[in-house]
Design goal:
It contains 10 helices and 12 strands. With 273 residues, it is of the alpha/beta class. The strands form 3 sheets. A 6-stranded mixed sheet has the order 6-7-8-3-9-10, with helices on both faces. Strands 2-1-4-5 form a 4-stranded antiparallel sheet, with helices on one face. A hairpin with a 2-residue loop joins strand 9 and strand 10. It is globular. Its main location: membrane. Pfam families: ABC_tran. GO terms for molecular function: ATP binding.
C-alpha cells in the first residue's frame, strides 16, 4: 500500500477549478517529480498534498487517513514541506532555522530534548551545514540557503519530504548541489521525496517516478523512460523535441527544437534571425 495517495481530488480558487478528480499514488521510498507547463497545477497539487491548501472535494490520504482530519502536529511528524522561495527572519542563524523543524515534537514551550538536539545535529551533518551552523542565513549563497532549509525540513524527522521548485534561481552548480543532496537522502536515508521541477532533464536524472500535469490532470505517470517522450512533450508542453539517451546514465534527455504551433518556415526564421 502506498502511504500517500489522492482520491478524486478537486482543487480550486473561488469559482476557478484548477485540479479536477486527481488520483495519484506516490511511490514509497522514491523521488517523484511533478512536471508540467506554467499554471498547470503542479504547485497547487503539492501544497494540497502537504495540507497547505484545502481541496474543494476528495481526499489526500496518509496511511489510509484523510490528512484534513488529522491534527496539525500529527501531520507535521509524518511529512515536511519546503515551499518556493522561503524567507527567514533577519539575523537568524542556520542552527536556529534548523531547530524550527523540531517544533512539532515539542510540548508547550519546553526546551529542546536530547532527541531534538540529536536530530538538529544530524540534519546539519547530512546536509553539510555543520561548519556553517552559526552563520546567519542572509550570509549564505543560494545553494547553501537551500541546504539550510532542507536541513530544517529534515529535522522534523519525517519520512516524506515535499519541495516546490527548490532549484529555481540557482546557478547550475548550486542546482546540482541541491539535487545531489536529495538523491543522497533518497538512496541512503530512504526518504520519499515529491518535488516540483521545471527542468525535465533534472526530473529524468534524479526521479524514479514522473507525473506530467496538464491543466490539472495527471496525464502521464510512470518512470522517466515511460513519461519523458516526444509525444508527452508535444501534448503537455506544446514543444517539438528529440529524446536522446544520457551517455552516463542512459536516462532520457530532452532537446527541444520548436513549438508545435510553428510552421517549418517560422522555425527556420527563428533559427537564422
Amino acid at each position: 500500500m502506498n502511504r500517500l495517495v489522492t482520491e478524486h481530488l478537486s482543487i480550486g480558487y473561488g469559482d476557478r477549478l484548477i485540479v479536477d478528480d486527481l488520483n495519484l499514488r506516490i511511490p514509497d521510498g522514491k523521488i517523484t517529480a511533478l512536471v508540467g507547463a506554467n499554471g498547470s497545477g503542479k504547485s497547487t497539487i503539492l501544497k494540497t498534498m502537504a495540507r497547505l491548501l484545502r481541496p474543494q472535494s476528495g481526499n489526500v490520504l496518509l496511511d489510509g487517513k484523510a490528512i484534513a482530519r488529522m491534527h496539525t502536529k500529527e501531520v507535521a511528524k509524518e511529512l515536511a514541506m519546503l515551499p518556493q522561495n522561503p524567507v527567514a527572519p533577519e539575523g537568524l542563524t542556520v542552527s536556529e532555522l534548523v531547530s524550527y523543524g523540531r517544533f512539532p515534537h515539542q510540548r508547550g514551550f519546553g526546551s529542546f530534548t536530547k532527541e531534538d538536539k540529536r536530530m538538529i545535529n544530524w540534519a546539519l551533518q547530512v546536509t553539510g551545514m555543520m561548519e556553517l551552523a552559526d552563520r546567519s542565513i542572509e550570509q549564505m549563497s543560494g545553494g547553501q540557503r537551500q541546504r539550510a532549509w532542507i536541513a530544517m525540513a529534515l529535522a522534523q524527522g519525517t519520512d516524506i519530504l515535499f519541495l516546490d521548485e527548490p532549484t529555481t534561481f540557482l546557478d547550475m552548480a548550486h542546482q546540482l548541489e541541491v539535487l545531489k543532496l536529495l538523491e543522497r537522502l533518497n538512496q541512503v536515508e530512504g526518504r520519499t521525496i515529491v518535488i516540483v521541477v521545471h527542468d525535465l532533464n533534472h526530473a529524468a536524472q534524479y526521479a524514479q517516478h514522473v507525473v506530467a500535469i496538464k491543466q490539472g490532470v495527471a496525464t502521464y505517470q510512470g518512470t522517466p523512460n515511460e513519461v519523458i517522450t516526444a509525444d508527452m512533450l508535444r501534448d503537455v508542453f506544446g514543444i517539438e523535441a528529440d529524446i536522446i539517451r544520457d551517455p552516463r546514465t542512459d536516462a532520457p534527455l530532452c532537446i527541444p527544437f520548436g513549438l508545435v504551433s510553428e510552421t517549418e518556415e517560422q522555425q527556420r526564421e527563428l533559427i537564422f534571425s
